[in-house]
């Protein structure tokens, strides 16, 4: 049994022994007193958690439910003292809790929490402590396996609920793009052999862009695809468009392409459950799908199909590619697959039309966020710099918060924030002592698209300058926190650069400025309006200019 599997999903966890006041048996306040470990895990700001799952595990029963949570300071108005509480609405799981039971909070991301309540002095408590590496000795293998499976199932359910919310938001974003008249989409149908597909994969001709999902197909799904392939059944087409380097950027069909390659290699991911491989960086220079797969522990995999004999008996036959006869291999090598290559006849409408195409291809599946779409449309050297910086710069990861495996990161919200910082820096200038923004039309998505298109013409020197600007800014930022953190990072980056990098910024300075009413009022009214954005930038600029 692999403890690492559960831990790989977690950004962290904490625990506390419940007191009577934490439970409904001793109080009707519906809240936990927050200790230091809980506060460190949940963050330094008041906030609301809408997607939390609750589990009660007792000696004779298990209860699974959902509830909302609110983290707040009960002594917010006190000048020197804080007293943090975690308020819950009330649910069947907490109703079972008693003094002496244990509460474990498992944090999957900034928005996803599992609250695990375990009856005291039970095998379940020992099993949880073993899974979380608090105990090194496993006392009951069966109990450990059962709880491990239970928690993994809860995690999958939470991720599905989260994805449904993301799908709804993504569709709203996609609808911002109007249909463009007089722009035609041309679809070129290419018939390629299985052998050509494999060769193209190994040569780096196929790109899995940043907007694509993680690879999630199971071993069974890969095997079913291989069976369909062997039997000559039709396989849905793969949708691509050619970038400026004449590589095929996969719009739809990533799972099929990677699964066919895994079948060809006779491999699969070594994890026991569904694979979740992030191969979205494929396409960067010197990266190919085979090279990216080297980052994962793989296992040899035999693939089988069931056939019925003339006597009616069913038995399994191995169909692993490497073990097939030469005759069957030749037959498969020339089996044709359909590639639909998309081209837009008018370059000026390419970006808008690709947004529409991406949205259409994902209808009924998993719609993409605006930035995920942008990652695919404007895949260039500047974007590669942003991807690398977002993934590798530890100070930025600390400032932004959360891991690159978090929900927001998977939806490219962190990359979008970096893009906003660069875009506003590019289009802002000083007129006397006032900051003004050029080319902003009251729509953030279109504004970022416009800047992204500009980046396609950036020289290597320009890209390096932006990289240095961002890295220098991060080094001079002590920390960023508070409800207005993201808008604050953009505002501070713009003002700091216009001041020619003259000051270090402490966390106290950051919070003092972003929590003033003069700043907050620009967000409460119309956060994405040009006038409000300029007001934010100017307020931060004037405040920073007074720092020695």
Task: Outline the fold blueprint.
Elements: H1 3-9, E1 12-17, E2 31-33, H2 36-42, E3 47-57, E4 62-73, E5 84-88, H3 92-95, E6 102-107, E7 112-118, H4 123-131, H5 141-174, E8 185-193, H6 194-203, E9 206-207, H7 219-230, E10 238-242, E11 248-252, H8 254-265, E12 267-269, H9 289-293, E13 298-300, E14 304-308, E15 314-318, H10 326-333, E16 336-344, H11 350-361, H12 370-377, H13 381-392, H14 394-400, H15 407-410, H16 413-427, E17 428-431, E18 434-437, H17 444-455, H18 460-476, H19 485-498, H20 507-514, H21 517-524, H22 530-544
Parallel strand pairs: 3-7, 9-11, 10-16
Antiparallel strand pairs: 1-6, 2-5, 3-4, 4-5, 6-7, 8-16, 10-11, 12-13, 14-15, 17-18
Helix pairs in contact: 4-5, 7-8, 11-12, 13-18, 16-17, 16-19, 19-22, 21-22
Average predicted local confidence, pLDDT: 81
Q: What is the strand content?
A: 15-25%
Q: Give the assembly state of these chains.
A: single chain
User: Given the helix and strand composition, which structural class is it?
Assistant: alpha+beta
Sheet with most strands: 7 strands, mixed
Poorly predicted tracts of residues:
173-180
Helix content percent band: 40-55%
Number of strands: 18
Radius of gyration: 27 Å
């Amino acid at each position: 049994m692999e403890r690492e599997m559960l831990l790989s999903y977690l950004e962290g966890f904490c625990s506390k022994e419940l007191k009577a006041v934490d439970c409904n048996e001793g109080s009707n306040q519906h809240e936990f007193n927050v200790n230091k470990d809980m506060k460190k895990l949940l963050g330094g700001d008041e906030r609301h958690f809408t997607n939390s799952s609750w589990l009660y595990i007792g000696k004779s029963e298990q209860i699974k439910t959902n509830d909302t949570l609110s983290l707040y300071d009960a002594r917010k108005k006190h000048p020197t003292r804080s007293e943090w509480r975690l308020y819950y609405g009330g649910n069947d799981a907490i109703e079972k809790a008693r003094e002496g039971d244990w509460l474990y909070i498992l944090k999957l991301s900034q928005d996803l929490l599992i609250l695990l309540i375990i009856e005291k002095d039970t095998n379940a408590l020992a099993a949880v402590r073993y899974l979380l590496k608090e105990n090194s000795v496993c006392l009951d293998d069966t109990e450990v396996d059962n709880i491990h499976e239970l928690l993994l199932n809860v995690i999958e359910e939470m991720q599905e609920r989260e994805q449904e919310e993301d799908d709804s938001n993504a569709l709203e974003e996609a609808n911002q793009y109007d249909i463009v008249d007089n722009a035609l989409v041309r679809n070129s149908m290419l018939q390629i052999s299985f052998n050509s597909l494999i060769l193209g994969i190994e040569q780096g001709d196929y790109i899995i862009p940043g907007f694509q999902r993680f690879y999630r197909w199971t071993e069974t799904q890969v095997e079913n695809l291989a069976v369909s392939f062997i039997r000559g059944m039709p396989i849905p087409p793969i949708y691509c468009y050619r970038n400026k380097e004449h590589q095929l950027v996969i719009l739809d069909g990533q799972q099929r392409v990677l699964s066919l390659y895994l079948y060809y290699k006779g491999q699969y991911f070594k994890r026991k459950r569904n694979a979740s491989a992030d191969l979205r960086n494929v396409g960067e220079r010197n990266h190919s799908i085979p090279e990216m797969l080297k980052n994962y522990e793989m296992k040899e995999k035999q693939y089988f199909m069931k056939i019925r004999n003339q006597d009616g008996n069913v038995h399994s036959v191995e169909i692993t590619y490497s073990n097939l006869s030469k005759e069957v291999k030749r037959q498969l090598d020339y089996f044709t697959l359909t590639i639909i290559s998309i081209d837009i006849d008018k370059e000026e409408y390419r970006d808008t039309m690709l947004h529409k195409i991406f949205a259409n291809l994902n209808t009924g599946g998993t719609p993409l966020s605006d930035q995920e779409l942008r990652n695919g449309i404007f895949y260039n050297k500047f974007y590669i710099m942003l991807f690398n910086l977002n993934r590798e710069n530890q100070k930025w990861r600390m400032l932004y918060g959360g891991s690159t495996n978090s929900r927001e990161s998977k939806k490219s919200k962190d990359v979008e924030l970096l893009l906003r910082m660069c875009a506003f820096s590019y289009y802002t200038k000083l007129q006397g002592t006032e900051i003004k923004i050029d080319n902003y039309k009251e729509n953030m998505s279109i504004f970022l698209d416009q800047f992204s298109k500009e980046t396609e013409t950036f020289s290597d020197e320009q890209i390096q300058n932006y990289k240095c600007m961002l890295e220098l800014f991060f080094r001079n930022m002590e920390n960023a926190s508070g409800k207005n953190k993201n808008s604050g990072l953009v505002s501070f980056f713009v003002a700091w650069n216009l001041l020619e990098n003259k000051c270090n910024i402490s966390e106290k300075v950051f919070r003092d400025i972003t929590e003033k009413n003069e700043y907050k009022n620009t967000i409460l009214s119309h956060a994405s309006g040009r006038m409000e954005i300029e007001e934010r930038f100017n307020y931060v600029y004037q405040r920073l200019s007074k720092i020695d």
